[in-house]
């Protein structure tokens, strides 16, 4: 009994290497020792592994199953918990989990992961296909985690900070107007500091608009960033303001498969500058710049890395300049007829 209790705390790891193998197992589907098929019914838990499929039995009743399917896009893992009546799908690309879907009677939960250089930078959690929580991870130049921020509609914004300077490890946590800090020194010395009603450097608020979009406002001094995410978790608008003046607004458009196809950026200065960017297969292919509703330049990005820049005067195109893949060397210069 003590051995079984100890085994229950182990993390789940299903075997996939042997074909048709039977194992004495714990309730977490971890193999304890290989056994014969006839001896399997003599144990409360036993595991059957065949190719990429693993089945966990309790008292000869199937209670858990895991199957791995390799596709061109990546690996898909399907887990079924028959006791909890729950199915979990995990989608992998380049050995990194990109999405986890959990289906049960009560709800559908989805988690999407975003990476930069194979390091996690953002996690979005959805409940019944509606964005609920955004977790942002901050890393230093060495790639180590320096902090994280958790925001959601039904929870307080929480920030965590991590650092290590001169062998002193620091952990910080902030919620609303309370910031606490722990410094860990050598010799098990821990120093705690707490600030109350201290004006934060960064303030955030989260609401839902009438279209059920998640609206996140971030204020730093006089600067205000307003981000709007649709119910699918896609960023559809980003507005940056300084005081009462709007600095820039960027609108994002997606296709039916949630792939970015267009952005429109408005920059309010002495004049109004507009930049339209068009994407195909998430690759920038065209960019058009406007000043007060008149085009001033258009850039086509070709598959070989070269680009063609068309310049305008009074709204009319007058020259095409072709640049090399380095974006600096001019390969050709062609003036439009009639100019």
What would the keywords be for this entry?
339 residues; 16-stranded antiparallel sheet; single chain; 2 helices; disordered N terminus; twelve-stranded antiparallel sheet; mainly beta
Q: Can you describe what's shown?
A:
The chain contains two helices and 28 strands. The strands form two sheets. The protein has a 16-stranded antiparallel sheet. It has a twelve-stranded antiparallel sheet with strand order 17-18-19-20-21-22-23-24-25-26-27-28, with no helix packed on it. It is extended. The protein is mostly beta strands. 3% of the residues lie in helices and 65% in strands. The model is unreliable at 1-19 (pLDDT under 50). The protein has helices at 2-8, 37-40; strands spanning 21-25, 31-35, 45-50, 53-58, 61-70, 75-81, 86-93, 96-103, 108-116, 119-127, 130-139, 145-152, 155-165, 168-175, 178-185, 189-196, 203-208, 214-220, 223-229, 235-242, 245-254, 260-268, 272-280, 283-291, 294-301, 307-313, 316-323, 330-335. It starts with a helix and ends with a strand.
């Amino acid at each position: 009994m003590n051995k079984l209790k100890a085994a229950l705390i182990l993390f789940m790891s299903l075997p996939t290497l042997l074909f048709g193998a039977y194992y004495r197992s714990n309730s977490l589907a971890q193999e304890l020792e290989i056994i014969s098929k006839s001896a399997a019914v003599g144990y409360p838990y036993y595991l059957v592994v065949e190719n990429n499929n693993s089945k966990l039995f309790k008292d000869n009743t199937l209670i858990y199953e895991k199957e791995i399917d390799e596709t061109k896009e990546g690996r898909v893992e399907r887990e079924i918990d028959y006791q909890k009546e729950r199915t979990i799908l995990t989608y992998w690309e380049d050995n990194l989990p990109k999405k986890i879907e959990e289906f049960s009677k009560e709800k559908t939960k989805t988690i999407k992961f975003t990476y930069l250089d194979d390091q996690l930078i953002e996690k979005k959690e959805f409940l019944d296909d509606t964005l609920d929580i955004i977790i942002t991870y901050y890393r230093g130049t060495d790639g180590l985690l320096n902090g994280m921020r958790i925001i959601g509609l039904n929870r307080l914004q929480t920030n965590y900070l991590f650092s290590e300077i001169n062998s002193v490890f620091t952990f910080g946590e902030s919620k609303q107007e309370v910031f606490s800090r722990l410094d860990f020194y050598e010799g098990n010395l821990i120093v705690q500091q707490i600030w109350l009603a201290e004006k934060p450097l960064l303030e955030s608020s989260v609401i839902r608009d009438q279209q059920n979009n998640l609206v996140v406002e971030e204020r730093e001094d006089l600067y205000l960033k307003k981000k709007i995410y649709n119910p699918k978790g896609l960023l559809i608008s980003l507005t940056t303001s300084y005081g009462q003046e709007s600095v820039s607004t960027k609108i994002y458009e997606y296709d039916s498969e949630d792939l970015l196809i267009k952005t429109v950026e408005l920059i309010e200065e002495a004049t109004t500058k507009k930049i339209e960017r068009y994407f195909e297969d998430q690759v920038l292919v065209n960019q058009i710049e406007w000043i007060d509703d008149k085009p001033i330049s258009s850039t086509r990005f070709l598959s070989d890395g070269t680009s063609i820049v068309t310049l305008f005067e009074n709204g009319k195109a007058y020259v095409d300049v072709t640049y090399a893949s380095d974006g600096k060397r001019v390969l050709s210069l062609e003036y439009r007829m009639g100019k």
